[in-house]
Amino acid sequence: MSDILETVSNLIHQTAFFNLTVGNFIMILVACVFLYLAIRRGYEPLLLVPIAFGMLLVNIYPDIIAAPAETSNGVGGLLYYFYALDEWSILPSLIFLGVGAMTDFGPLIANPISFLLGAAAQIGIFMAYLLAILLGFSDEAAAAVSIIGGADGPTSIFLAGKLGQSALMGPIAVAAYSYMSLVPIIQPPIMKLFTTKEERAIHMDQLRDVSKLERILFPIIVTIVVCLILPTTAPLVGMLMLGNLFRESGVVRQLTDTASNAMMYIVVILLGTSVGASTSAEAFLNISTIKIVVLGLVAFVFGTTGGVLLGKLLCKISKGKINPLIGSAGVSAVPMAARVSQKVGAEEDPTNFLLMHAMGPNVAGVIGTAVAAGVFMAIFGV
């Protein structure tokens, strides 16, 4: 009888209930909220579902991301090996390959001024960098945190890994992806604050047709120019442009389909769950995380504002030919930010179609955020 009771006691004590802390329960609740937002409200479900589930798993069973040295058999947890691919910058680079294979750079080529709007939206990154230093972060940590302002999760993970900020990677990635999913909530009030009804109702001329030759030359030229100036951007910009060259060349249909579908979704699963698993209660529930979340919001607000204000300036210079709303799409949340520009513009005039015009700054923002990351790596000699 004693053996039976001992066995039952051992089984009971092996359950997670005896090991969970209050912090773990808080993080489990946060994970459930994220799952609700993703499934019920449709906020970036492809990102939030795996992130939230990874968060759920690690706060129930921490050993799922344990390093080999922390286990009795010398074998790390499942998500430890997924997370290593984040730290080595492999998964973020592959994400960019898939994004490039899905992206149409035609609107950017047809309206090169979009590069300026995409660059203006990066001001949030550098404002957040200065604020992060004032809040006590080291220079490298401040740079890793500030890149959240680009609303680009893969670049945030990439830079955090390159700058040796693995301890902050979880909060940074969760903040970046959260703000990406909340673009439809955060941006419209800012856009309306800095524009008038007349400006929001401006119709823009139809974009010119872009030739196949232009589409093929674009990724090649961008790769040469950007990577010669900032070689450290090659993993991101190079993969982005390689994926786009797959798409536009028209001779490697199988590679395009694989990069934009099967491979992309596999990488999202690995990256999302591993990032979520880096948010254990011990790593996430602290003052630094609160600072990161606040700084991310500040960066995002400044980035959106910078894009809209430059849009207003270009609107005046062009005598009303440019709708300032497309400037808000200069953050890297593709294509969500462009859709928000379209939505806000359509609220003033249902016949106004801004989506393709907004896609120019939107894809320029992807390049701009990668360049900003490259600037930080060059500054710190990475």
SSE layout:
Layout: H1 2-13, H2 22-39, H3 45-60, H4 78-87, H5 90-102, H6 106-110, H7 114-120, H8 123-134, H9 139-146, H10 153-162, H11 166-181, H12 183-193, H13 197-200, H14 212-229, H15 234-249, H16 253-260, H17 262-277, H18 281-284, H19 287-317, H20 336-348, H21 355-379
Helix pairs in contact: 2-3, 3-11, 3-17, 4-17, 5-10, 5-15, 5-16, 5-17, 7-19, 7-21, 8-9, 8-19, 9-10, 10-11, 10-21, 11-19, 12-19, 12-20, 14-15, 15-16, 16-17, 20-21
Instruction: Enumerate how many helices there are, as a single number.
Output: 21
Q: What is the helix fraction of residues, given as a range? A: over 70%
Number of strands: 0
Strand content: under 5%
**How does the helix and strand content classify structurally?**
mainly alpha
What Rg is obtained from the alpha carbons, in whole angstroms?
22 Å
What would your notes on this structure say?
With 382 residues, the protein is mostly helical. It has helices at 2-13, 22-39, 45-60, 78-87, 90-102, 106-110, 114-120, 123-134, 139-146, 153-162, 166-181, 183-193, 197-200, 212-229, 234-249, 253-260, 262-277, 281-284, 287-317, 336-348, 355-379. Helix 8 runs antiparallel to helix 9 and helix 9 runs antiparallel to helix 10. The chain is globular.
Can you give keywords for this protein?
single chain, 382 residues, mainly alpha, 0% strand
In short:
The protein is mostly helical and 382 residues long.
